[in-house]
Amino acid sequence: MTGWNGLLREYAQWFNLDGVDEFVTLQEGNTPLIHADRLSERLEADVWLKCEGLNPSGSFKDRGMTMAITKAKANGAQRVICGSTGNTSASAAAYAAKAGMDCVVLVPEGKIALGKLAQAMVYGAEVLQIRGNFDQALNLARELTQHMAITIVNSINPDRIEGQKTGAFEIVDVLGNAPDILSIPVGNAGNITAYWRGFTQYHFAGHCSTLPKMWGFQAAGAAPIVLGRPVENPETIATAIRIGNPASWVPALEVIHESLGDIRAVTDDEIIEAYRYVARYESVFCEPASAASVAGILKFGVPKGSTVVCVLTGNGLKDPETAVSTSATPPVIDATIKALLEKLS
Ligand code: F0G
């Protein structure tokens, strides 16, 4: 087989694939790393955008899900479950469908972007809306695994982090070294943990001579790690990271410590400004949560001349409501050349 065949095949030597004889893949990974010309100029640095919205289900979750579902299948699982703010559910539903497994997803009622809900439904998952938030949905999914044979595919499943570390591999493969700074949105804190694992494994194997500072960004209304305590009722327009008690809190603190990095907060206004900026000036339409990585470097600045990669974790098309509600309504005109000329003159 020629061409890209999914990250499990491409990076097989970096995983423990004992007992796996069939990959469940949708050819995820190998996403574009686009040079951000305007942001680079504005920040006097070399800024790149890792466009994870171009994965098969439109987010970085596919990197972890190809591994989690492949392993679950190898272990004979027939049913998987996740609690989700939307992207994990879309990805789990897609990969479970590919594997011929049943998928149950628990999402917070009314608090997930419409595109993500649509994905989970159309991929054929059993979608249950919880009267509660993400943290409660995740706890319920965990608890259920003690009552029936069902495999959890949230990032507390170690196979997820293993797959997601490949995002770091790809960045080094393109840049020829690690960036100085890796800027990334933080919700449940699995992805920042996964990227650090990827960078450190590549570093110890001699693929990059340096390691990045890991800069994580939480939404100000859902910033438990920044505050140092769980947030009972997290709120943010960036629903993907509307999380009050991250499962990978401790590993994320270790990442920050080891990399000399930081986790800081950006407000919803800053997120939306960055979200519109990357679309308007870099032509990348990401979802609001993803833009936290760009909002963070705009807010806090970066050292002059440094190489910075912002991970844009999900596709903007997943959340059409936010795109439309933060834009001016397009005017309606008569279908005549006169009206058109009047409008454009
Ligand atoms: N960006 C997007 C678009 C996400 O969907 C998520 C998490 C994150 C960033 C944060 O990543 O949790 O590893 O720190 N979404 C999860 C979900 C919680 O259910 O889809 P994290």
How would you summarize this macromolecular structure in one to three sentences?
This protein has 345 residues and is α/β, with parallel strands linked by helices. 41% of the residues lie in helices and 15% in strands.
Summary keywords:
alpha/beta; Rossmann fold; 6-stranded mixed beta sheet; 4-stranded parallel beta sheet; 41% helix; globular; binds ligand F0G
Overall radius of gyration: 20 Å
CATH architecture verdict of the largest domain: 3-Layer(aba) Sandwich
- Provide the residue-averaged pLDDT: 98
Number of domains: 2
Order of helices and strands: HEHEHEHEHEHEHHEHEHHEHHEHH
Oligomer: single chain
Number of distinct helices: 15
CATH class of the largest domain: Alpha Beta
Q: Which strand order does the major sheet show?
A: 1-2-10-7-8-9
* CATH fold-level assignment of the largest domain: Rossmann fold
For the terminal residues, how far apart are their CA atoms? 55 Å
Number of strands: 10
Indicate the structural class. alpha/beta
Please report which band the strand proportion falls in: under 5%, 5-15%, 15-25%, 25-35%, 35-45% or over 45%.
5-15%
